[in-house]
């Protein structure tokens, strides 16, 4: 295959993993989240430094502690070192809220960047790209107060969903 075409295919595959990373955190999909990292990947989030296999139960517990969570990542900038290794950087925004004592939802909005190393390995069903090393850098944080509840606002009734455990009925494996 033309190397330029293969690089485009590989960039798309890496971008898909990053989107899956955000989505599976938000929908609390432990199995799909684990497929974003190689189990031996080195992870550094500050509050955790170690292997991905040990990190995943911790991060999913943190996510389950929020009544609402939302992750969005930018398009990554990707540089290939070889046909099976790459580096990327992308920006991310994360919001999480919890029910407060007065019944309202409040939380924080975080902005940062993901510095990732990637490897393309055989995953048992063929070669795939996964994160082999990740460092997260927090750039800023802002309070979010008085967030919408889980009942539609009668003045502007947009639907809401409370995702409090894996297997939400609106979640579709993609």
Task: Spell out the blueprint of helices and strands.
Elements: H1 3-26, H2 30-34, E1 37-44, E2 49-51, H3 52-64, E3 68-73, E4 77-82, E5 85-99, E6 105-122, E7 127-147
Parallel strand pairs: 1-7
Antiparallel strand pairs: 1-2, 3-5, 4-5, 5-6, 6-7
Protein model, in words:
The chain is of the alpha+beta class and 174 residues long. It has one domain: Nuclear Transport Factor 2, Chain: A (Roll), CATH 3.10.450. Helices cover 24% and strands 44% of the residues. The chain contains 3 helices and 7 strands; from the N terminus they run ααββαβββββ. Strand 4 and strand 5 form a beta hairpin. The longest helix has 24 residues. 19% of the residues are buried.
Primary descriptors:
7 strands, 174 residues, Nuclear Transport Factor 2, Chain: A, single chain, alpha+beta, seven-stranded mixed sheet
Quickly count the helices. Answer: 3
CATH architect. name: Roll
Overall body shape = elongated
**Tally of individual domains:** 1
What is the CA–CA distance across the termini? 27 Å
What is the succession of H and E elements?
A: HHEEHEEEEE
Structural class: alpha+beta
- Low-pLDDT parts are none
